[in-house]
Structures are given as C-alpha cells and as structure tokens.
Amino acid sequence: MGFKKDFLWGGATAANQYEGGYDQDGKGLNAIDVLTNGAVDRPRLVTWKKEDGTTGNSPFVWGGDFNIPADATPAILSDYHYPSHHGTDFYHHYKEDIGLMAEMGFKVFRLSISWSRIFPNGDEEEPNETGLNFYKQIFEECHKYHIEPMVTLSHYDTPLALIKRYGGWSDRKLINLFEKYVVTVFKYYKGQVKYWTTFNEINAMTLAPYMGGGLTDPTPQNRAQGAHNQFVASSLAVKAAHRIDPEMKVGQMLAYSPIYPYTCDPADQVEIMKAQQETLFYSDVQVGGRYPEYRLKKYEREGIKLDDRPQDYELLAEYPADFLSFSCYSSSVLTTHANDDHAAGNLGVAGVTNPYLETNAWGWATDPDCLRLALNILWDRYHKPLWVVENGLGWADKLEDDHKIHDDYRIKYLRAAISSMSDAVKIDGVDLMGYTMWSAVDLVSNGTGEMKKRYGLVYVDCNDLGNGTMKRYKKDSFSWYQRVIVSNGADLK
Ligand code: BG6
C-alpha cells in the first residue's frame, strides 16, 4: 500500500472529551467544563452567572459561538449536565485502555494534556505535581507496549481562569503563560514524548473561537489577534522543544476538508478559492512561516490592526511547524447559486448538500475518498511531512445483548479512507507520517456533547447523561484495525 515501514498507526482522543476527573487532584476548570450536552437538533449551552447572582445559559452557536451577556461570566450551575466532567473516564481506565490499544497493535496514541491539570488557573508559579504525574504514568504505560504518545498541548482546553481574566487568546499575555506551560511539560516528559502539536484545529479561531481560543468577545479583530498570538506561541513551542530535546517534533494541527464547487460556474471556483484561503491562511503562517498577502489585504480592508512586535515575524519564519497534522472527516460543497439544501459538517462547516454522497445521522457527508485530495493539496503547497491525526465515522452504535457491536459501516468507511491515503502515498508520492483515526475509544462528541455519536473502536457503556458502567467492549472494527496494522495497511478486508 506504499506506507513506510515505521508508519505511525494508531488512534486519537482529547482530554476534555475522554478523561473525566474534571476536578480531581487539583485540576482547574477549562473552556469546555461549562458547556452542557446537546443533540443534533439542540445546541450545547454555555452556562453563566452574574455578580448579582442571576444565572442563565446561552446557546453555543458555531462561528460566533460565545454570546453570553456582557456582565456575566461562564460558570458551572446545578441542574445542568456537563459531559466533560466524566468523559469516558480515561482518568481511571487508562491502563485498561492503553492495554486495548496495544492489543490492536497501536504504534502511536494521540491524546491531549489538559493545561489546567498542570497549571489549574493557567498562571501559577509552580505546576501541579499530581497533574504532571498523571500523564507521566500514562506515557510509561504507553512505552511498556512500545506505543509512542503524540500529545496535543491544547485541545479546546484554555483554562477558564484565563478566559475570565483576559477574554482568552486575544490577549498577548497568554503567549508567555502558554510558553511556561509547554516548557514545563517538554522538560518533564523529555525522553517520553517525541511528537507534539500545539493547538488542535488552530483554524477553530475562525470556526469556533471560544473552543479554539477561549474568546469571550469574538470580533474579527479579536479573532485575528487570537490567531496571531497562537502562531507566536506555536513558534515559541517549536523553539523550546528543539532546545530542550532535538528529538522532539512539534507540528501544526489544522481542520482541513476539501471543498467542491457545486457548479462549474467560474464564480463558484472563486468562492472555493476564498474559502480555502480562510483555512490555508493558518498553515501558510504556521507551516509556511509568513503571513500570505491575501490575508494582509483582508486585514487592511477590514481595518484590522494586529498588536504585534517585529520579533514575532522573525520567530514565525525561523521556527515553523516541523510537520503538518490535520483532521479530515468529510468534504463540503459551496456555490454562489441559490440552493436551500443546507448541509452540516465538522465545526459547523456548512455549505450545501452533495448529491453524490450519503450522510450520517448528524448530516455529515460520508466522503472517505477526499483524503487523497486533502493530502495532495497540503503536500503540494508545503512539502512538509503530513499526518492524518483525525478521521473517522460518528454513528449511534448499538451494544447487542451478547455485548458485540457490529460496526460494519465504520469498517467500510475506514477501509475507503485508508485506500485513499494509500493512493496519495503510492501513486502521488505524498510524505505521510501516520494515521491516528478518531477515536481510539468512544468519547463525548465535541460538537453536540453527546455520547450517542460514537467514533471508537472500543465501545464504552455510558449514556448522554453520563450514566453507565463505563465498561469497555471491543467493536467489530477492533479486530479489523488490528489486521490493518499488522499488515501495514495491506489487509483491508
Ligand atoms: C474534531 C475535533 O473537530 O472533530 C474533535 O478535534 C471532535 O474534538 C471531532 O470530536 C469530531 O467531531 P464531533 O463533533 O462529531 O465530536
């Protein structure tokens, strides 16, 4: 299939969706800890409190997701359910789960460190030793089975205290606070962790600025500044990693989906180009090392002025990301023509329905073949090693009476996705480092906060309200993926 001998096969997770133990052993709250569960037809809610004691909630809306009253601050309230508080309890099941990953033959396990487990408010003088020790034990467990951990430093995980105090990443103060956090973990886990990424789906600053950057006032100006601050913080992370341990590699993590024009009208092609620029701007800076002209022009037109320093640009050019990792679940379709057939997608990416593709129960188009396109587009533009760090199929899996889960639809999707990656590698010569499908084990959905929307190879007995035994059961895809890994992608049957 063309995959390298040391191809990094595995699965991915994120602390706020998987770990649980949200207030244990000194962990502070983070952005997602104040988001309730929702459903396909019901948005998640941000709950809040005012100084006079009034409480309430505001729907979380993609694009401009944070609309709580100006005089309120996000808060946990009784009578609401917050799925990040339990996740699927990796906190107490990590040995069992890593054992299951080892059984599948994982070479790599992508997880995130929760910043507020290390610095509960994001700005303490000293880190929380218990938090540091928790991840140390996880990494030790991984190495017991020769599994390489791949760590996201911030997966929708800005400490809530920094959100309340600074309004999130639009404040430059977060750059140095983040630097302190990453230097702490780089030093602590030196020799244990080689692969890192900074911000999960860094372009969430456009699509979901509260999730991506903890922004409480997501104006275009604040989003531009938030992105700039995260770019600088990412370059500082690359610089620190290389200094602390030259073996470390720090990548970008981008949400990338190919976009198709609905018609061959030239106006539709321009629409696609503009939408691509909105995403690729993030990799042009973080991987390419410089602001592209189209973005500078946009800022000029919109009157956006960055609070920047000349040395920011030196850092960006000198310390770009070592590799480009990305999530890709599906494609989307755009048109300038009237079309009311609206589609749904990751991070609220909308557009219109693709008549050639089926959708899942959440309206996301099933397009595993788009991976070849995505890989070629990114490889041609950057010529940096690529890594598919998220890809998979969300489904309402059914646990049968005999404790089996027959997820043949997931096997079908993953089979096609791996074939598509193989074409990109074998036919087109793309340099692909690895594949960490989403998700190794069932976890809470980011978009809807449900348990019902499952992606895992391992089923977890837990419902939307966090009730269940948390027992783990292997799905049919478990042994299928095991065969894929042992054959280095050759056996997809
Ligand atoms: C990605 C995120 O956007 O998509 C994950 O990095 C998320 O956190 C995944 O879970 C799938 O999205 P959803 O909304 O189906 O959970």
TrEMBL record:
<keyword id="KW-0326">Glycosidase</keyword>
<dbReference type="InterPro" id="IPR017853">
    <property type="entry name" value="GH"/>
</dbReference>
<keyword id="KW-0378">Hydrolase</keyword>
<comment type="similarity">
    <text>Belongs to the glycosyl hydrolase 1 family.</text>
</comment>
<dbReference type="InterPro" id="IPR001360">
    <property type="entry name" value="Glyco_hydro_1"/>
</dbReference>
<dbReference type="InterPro" id="IPR033132">
    <property type="entry name" value="GH_1_N_CS"/>
</dbReference>
<dbReference type="Pfam" id="PF00232">
    <property type="entry name" value="Glyco_hydro_1"/>
</dbReference>
<protein>
    <submittedName>
        <fullName>6-phospho-beta-glucosidase</fullName>
    </submittedName>
</protein>
